[in-house]
Amino acid sequence: MTAPLDGYVVVDLSTGVAGAYCTKLLADGGADVVKIEPPEGDPLRHWSASGADTAGDGALFAFLSGGKRSVVADPVREADVGLVEKLIAAADAVVWSRGSAVAEHDRFGPAAVRARHPHLVVTSITSFGLDGPWRDRPATEFTLQAWSGGAIGIGRGSQDRAPVHVGGQVGDWLAGAYAAAMTLAFRHRALRDGHGELIDLSMLEAQILGLTYYPVTYHEMLGRPWRTERRPTVPGVAQAADGLVALGCGTAQQWFDLCAMSGHDEWIDETSSLTITEQANLHADDLYAWLRNQNVDDVRDLASAFRIPNSPVGNGANVTGMDHYVARGTFVPNPRGHFVQPGHPYRLSGVTLRPPAPAPTLGEHTEAARALPAAPRQAAPTNESPRDPLPFSGLRVLDMTTFWAGPSCTHALAMLGAEVIHLESTPRPDGTRLIAGIPATVEQWWERSPIFSALNTNKLGITLDFQTEAGRDLLRRLIATCDVIVENFTPRVIDQIGLDFDSVRELRPDVIMLRMPGFGLDGPWRDNPAFAYIIEDASGLSWRTGYPDRNPYEPYSIGDPNAGIHALTAVQLALEHRRRTGEGVLVEAAMVDAALNVAAEQVIEYTAYGALLQRDGNRGPAAAPQNVYKVSGVDEFGREDCWVAIAVATDGQWDSLCEALGRPAWAADPALHDAAGRRGSHDAIDEHLAAWCSSRSGDDVVETLGDAGVPVAKVMQPHRQTEIDQLTHRGFFERVEHPVNPTASHSTLPIRLDDGPASFHRSPAPLLGQHTGELLMGLGLTDDELRVLVEERVIGTAPGPGGRRSTA
């Protein structure tokens, strides 16, 4: 059986992790990826985060480029320009980023390629986008985190230290995951009407969606920010008697259970006006003292028994030996044989995904490409009726998800045209309706959550209590009308109500069922509850975040949206398999598998070179100096807590920095003229930059260094994202009206389109059960039957007790 993307040809004109990860995901799905490289090769071939001698191609390159073809082209040779043009003309898609002489040739810019070949889906990956006032502003993944608000995030770190970034260059990986999903989405449309698209992806916008939790919508709807200070998550990553352990409380019940588990029932106060986060912080010292006297395994066993999210704290050295990953075969050997890597970030039943394949040597396929006859794709017909710009129009999706990971996947489907039916029940509304801190005395308090609003526009809302016999019967009838079913319960829940894949397939044989458990459908941790932070702990994302002299900080963000965007790619591969075969597919998109993939560099570096990558505050392997520096001024909370992020990624940027500083004597040391020398003198450089920044405002530092060509950013409070001119220019935020809440700005997708919809948000998030009547009448129910369902509490429009319980 062929892979879903067999025959799909992608020309890769990108450099760096984002483009490489995008095309890796496409290649794993079966696409023929042709990597065009300049004569010196992609710089990623020689990259090692630990600085190891790569002795040729590095291990990360081998992971990201497996199964691709390499064609070398020198853009100063007309014959090579013609070769690249021939390959592009015969392709279905092009992935592009700045960074190579080939990509930056006049003929191969995204707009130029799209103009010559309108059938192509051209995906451009840049820091800020191809257009707008910031399009040429220098940036790195680190400075983009600062602009996004991700360096302060939703309370990460502690107020006694500088804000700290999420380690591991996660923004680049996340941008690559978005690029793959969006490329496939507009491939879906191209299959329908023959027209391509220019997808202009902004890495800044991808970071906003992945590293912050809808802070603008929250601030505008409620008049306050999500967090006002940096605080470590409690309990978060904690020191036990024999090592680190991770515990989390995502709900009030989990906090109450943790109180009981630690022997402190007196902490339980269901009438408290404090949030569970505030209550946890109040008792943090005592809780940590208790944990220091417990062994890790004992804590985890207890937490699992209490249904409290928990995990070991993973890193490059220990994750490959964790029992759950061993049982699931999560890590596989690279074909080159000298290191291991995570397997695919999702699993599809009955669908072939390409197994790990060797990465190409530089130019390995050049001569074969020269010998290929020209075979340009045919352009789409010109005389057509008005076209639908939304790729998923006509696709019906039942969204049985809650909180963040699952809804972020279905939200993208809804913004791109799918009819998404969001299922809740009156006894168990979507969890994001309950986390805004709205008192129950406020009218329709359950409708006022900014997070629910931000995640669920364009969806229809239905309530069904599927713990009742009538509710399950209606749910099954609804399933039979849907193309895709998405759920993110722990596996046991779906099994208990009799909606496993085999049962669902009896209702609709060609159904795509996307399951998004935290840890997968099998293995020792199968039934463990998982929120974003626990996934980050278990995968190594937390390990790289924070300071070396403190426990890791949980990013508390990326675990969920990263899972959502990987699941979107997985469901599209399943849809393509169905298009080709007519078969339904079970998609298992475990949150932790997606996280392990974007944290892959840790395992790769350790097993290839014996290097355990560590957290290092705000320093990182991609730039030196790289750090945040305090500037003068008082923030909106009355604190002297204003910062800028500076990252010097090249020797040329170092020279520009020296020029902007007035070429001070300390910077004239010849040892600082290369990255190794600067890294060795990082402490001294930090002292000088800190002194220079301290007497200047953030705006002054950004203007002085940015104009000189140095990557620099203000460390933004996340709810201030609308103040960034570039986002305004691109229309990243759209104003959404709501029947209960004030009109507020809502983030969209991290892309602009040549031929896309006028707006992404077409209707507000649904009220609880808003469309239940019309959806059930679509199944043939009468008004009288609906009244009975209301009376029996099977359906409803306000939180409350459900109907009479029954066994499945």
TrEMBL record:
Q: What is this protein identified as?
A: CoA transferase
Q: What PANTHER family does the entry give?
A: SUCCINATE--HYDROXYMETHYLGLUTARATE COA-TRANSFERASE (PTHR48207)
Q: Which InterPro entries match?
A: CoA-transferase_III_domain, CoA-Trfase_fam_III, CoA-Trfase_III_dom3_sf, CoA-Trfase_III_dom_1_sf
- Statement: the UniProt record of this protein carries the keyword Protein biosynthesis: no
Q: Which keywords annotate this record?
A: Transferase
Gene Ontology molecular function: CoA-transferase activity
Q: Can you tell which superkingdom this protein's organism belongs to? A: Bacteria
Task: Say if the entry is tagged with keyword Transferase.
Answer: yes
